[in-house]
Amino acid sequence: MSELKIVLYPDPVLLTIGKPVGEEEFNADLEKTVADMFETMHSAHGVGLAAPQVGISKRFFVMDIADEEGRPNPLAFFNPEIIGVEGEQTGDEGCLSFPGLYQQVRRDMRVIVRAQDVKGDRFEMDVTELSARCVLHETDHCDGIVFLDRMSPLKRQLAKRKIKRLQNTGKWE
Ligand code: NI
Question: What are the respective helix, strand and coil percentages of the chain, to the nearest 5?
Answer without folding.
Answer: 35, 25, 40
